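Q: Given only this backbone (216 positions), what sequence would you predict?
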């Protein structure tokens, strides 16, 4: 009987050690996820100089999200393990009570921020692709541009993207975060503005023959 009691106590001690380790590691997972969110907001700002570079940034972002997803899943698994261990030990966990809400809150903030980043990059890809295509068209063929709608659409996409860059990410609790500093944002918008100027210039060049036709 004594040996049985010793075995039971030894098992309980091992479970206690395991419980504390799971709690510590779960709290660490929340910290890692917070750091990934911070990095996303402060350093993932560039939109790319052209369609190709922007597509590369989009792919890099998807890999970054995979890392965050793994971190969140790891934290969830650890917290589930603490619940099982607590039931076995008939105790209440010291930290999982507040760690789970923290983990879920940071993950929600990360997913909202990530979705905004994806939206901006996808809009930038659409803008650059359309602008590059129209700028590469042969200017000696103005009849290809009888419809000025293409230019208007590109300018509208560019303008909506520039407007979007000035808007903060809003979280469920009402708090707001911007991507980088105002100067970071201005730098990210620079290539969009430059390409919009080129598109506008080409539109004017193609309109000029129309303007001079009545005089000839």
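A: Predicted residues:
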């Amino acid at each position: 009987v004594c040996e049985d009691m010793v075995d039971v106590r030894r098992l309980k001690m091992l479970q206690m050690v395991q419980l504390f380790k799971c709690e510590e590691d779960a709290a660490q997972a929340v910290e890692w996820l917070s750091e990934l969110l911070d990095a996303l907001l402060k350093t993932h700002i560039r939109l790319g100089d052209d369609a190709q570079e922007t597509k590369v940034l989009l792919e890099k972002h998807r890999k970054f999200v995979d890392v965050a997803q793994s971190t969140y899943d790891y934290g969830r698994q650890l917290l589930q393990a603490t619940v099982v261990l607590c039931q076995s030990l008939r105790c209440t966990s010291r930290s999982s009570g507040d760690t789970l809400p923290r983990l879920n809150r940071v993950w929600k903030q990360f997913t909202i921020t990530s979705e905004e980043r994806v939206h901006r990059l996808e809009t930038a890809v659409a803008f650059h692709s359309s602008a590059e295509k129209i700028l590469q068209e042969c200017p000696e063929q103005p009849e290809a541009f009888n419809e000025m709608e293409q230019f208007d659409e590109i300018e509208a996409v560019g303008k909506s993207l520039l407007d979007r860059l000035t808007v903060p990410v809003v979280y469920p609790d009402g708090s707001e975060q911007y991507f980088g500093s105002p100067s970071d944002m201005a730098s990210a918008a620079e290539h969009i503005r430059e390409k919009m100027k080129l598109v506008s210039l080409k539109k004017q060049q193609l309109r000029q023959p129309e303007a001079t036709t009545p005089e000839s």
